[in-house]
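Re: duplicated header lines in exported structure tokens

Our pipeline writes sequence and tokens for each protein into one text file. With two proteins the header for the second block appears twice in some exports. Here is an export where it did not happen, for reference. First protein block:
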Amino acid sequence: MLEIVECDLEKPDTIGLALGNASIVICSIGASEKEVFDITGPFRIDYQATKNLIDAATVAKVNHFILVTSLGTNKIGFPAAILNLFWGVLVWKRKAEEALLASGLPYTIVRPGGMERPTDAFKETHNITLSTEDTLFGGLVSNLQIAELMAVMAKNRDLSYCKIVEAIAETTAPLTPMEELLAKIPSQRPYIYAPKEPDIAAVSVPDPSANVVAVEPSVATQKETAQPKPVAKQPLSPYTVYDDLKPPSSPSPSQPGRGKQIKISETVPKPSASDTPSSAPRVDGISQITSSSKVEKPLSPYVVYPELKPPTSPSPNAPTISVPTSAAGGVPEIETVSSNGSAQLSIADKPKDERLPEPKSRPLSPYTMYEDLKPPASPTPSFRES
């Protein structure tokens, strides 16, 4: 918002009240041409009055200070240096610039060309151009163009922050937005963005009762999560998962003995010293073992699987060889126990000097065990007498 107030800059006590809470100050004062014979004019107006305004703005802590001076204030060049003939006006304007630079306020210094002759219609044929400090020493620009430039600077502080620009208008210059012209001028200091103030309407005071309600469900949730969840039992069989997968038709065989362990102890009596190993009968390929206890278990696998049928020919019985006990020697009876169907002899005690009778002869032909199996046309050979 722009507000116009009346103030005498030569009276420092009244400047603070005039500034109030202003955020941006634009200073474009200068000695009047009508008082050309007043040798104190440039000192009192261009320097002292401007310095009083700078000091008051520093106390008020304004955000930006824009100062309008003239070309040639910091470097001698023609035709701008001719203005110093007016009681050293460029020297006092430079003093004011130095006071602003030393204040520490965010600033922008505008050095325009001659503004006496151009009218407001000057901008219709001349476009404004901006240059860096100590570059130009002559040129014209209208008051209206400088006023528009300062308005753009006040609106875009980040583009005009701590810059010194020199402005003139030319017929050959292209029409360019002033924002783009300001962006090309380098800054003396990096721009510091002000922190955004929080919106009072968006900030709400928390309600204590609401906090209690919000905390209690969270505690209950933590207790629920602390308790372990029951794990569902999964069947060990894969057939429950796949409907199309069927188990085999044959049942699983049961373990023999149904979990009961049967301990078979075999005792073999030690032979006496009088016995000789040569008198005991030996059978080639058959081990002699005497067992005191024997557990009967089926040798056929067909008893476990009801649906499995044996072949037509019956399974042969395990051969059993018995040796009669001698009355004189006291040799126990010999039994043959074999799990693979072959005959085995066992002797508990070695015989004495008496020779045991020879075992009964058995047919060598396998046809006697299988009724359905017929021998070939050739007759069965007879046993040889030893």
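Second protein block, exported in the same file:
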Amino acid sequence: MVFSPTSSVRASCLELIRQSGSVAINISALEKFSNEIAQSIHSNQSLQVAEWDTDGWHYTGKTYQRRKYQNDELYELMRMERVGLYILSMDAINFCFWPSSSCSAKNGLEYEHLAIALRKVAEMDDASDNRQEYTGSGDSNTFVQAESSYVLSPFNLAALTSKKLQSLLQPHFPPSSESIVYGLPGIDVRCRLLNELGKGLLDHHNGSALNMISKANQSADSLVKIILDTFPGFRDYVDKESWTNKNNSCDWNAAKSSTSVIHFYKRAQIAVADVWAALGRCSTSSQKCHFTDMKLITTFPDYRVPQILRQVGALQYTPALAAKVDNQEELDEGGVDEVSIRAGTVVAVEEMVELVKKRLTDIAESDSSEESKENLYKLLEDVSAVTIDWYLWQRGEKQDRLNLLGPHHRVRTTYY
């Protein structure tokens, strides 16, 4: 049987949550929350999900300039290659910002700070008019390679050092104070993952992000699999056998077919969703990133989405687990509690997608306005685990800034 990462996530999480003793899904609360979202979509005639770079955090290549091919197809391919490398780099190191290097000050670093810093690093040679030749082909059916002046080129990523990475990012973070610091924890691990990214692209995909993407043949599920097969750092799974004996955890080849493995693949899936959002969803320049099976991608089980689901009562923890989370105790990475929270998040969002679509269908069928009804049916097509995840994450970020959320679960992990 061919391994499907997204199907494995759904099936293994559903099986676990049916057996879980520490996390439960409150269907009544989930239905109420889903109805609220559907009603809001109807009222606003919109999914209310910000586009990929609405806030200006991410690198888009819009300021990328090269006179030698400014107006032809190669220019657009080079821009897309740079954006693809930015996305893969960002999602390779997008995890666990909360640990602080200070005993007295908390770490204020958030996703947006890293995204902006990496964007500024990516823009460093945007306006360069060097005469370096590209490697590869301008044929959209093959590939291009980023110029060596691009900091995030595979060659540069493969040779990156921790010291260099720190020097590139830190100047772009907000200034620290006595009560709050802005620093990227685990710099050595993040550098290793970027080295792995660069080397994997060079060894397996001709040093080209677009070459890797094109091998998926417009399939999001296939691209997740390619990422997992190429880059070990994205292999986000837990073998239940390790709960009784840590030496029993299976390797990657065995994990694909093992019935004891719980699959998540948060960073691999979000990388594919980011590629789709940045280069496929609203772009007409290339078909490479117009994935035809985006609905197969699951929610991205991290800490923010379960935090929101718990707040509205849709996810319920046992008193013992609730106390650990509320007291900000660190959970064991890959332990029963952490895995149950993540699995519950996947299953809850899957159920939410169906509930929101059902409610929107009911609203559309009873709507007297043909224009409103037609628009709702169009919006229905865009309701998926990805767009619901974006909605929940963006809602969570806003509420967190207003201190309206309770604590999230804490785990020292490289997976989210």
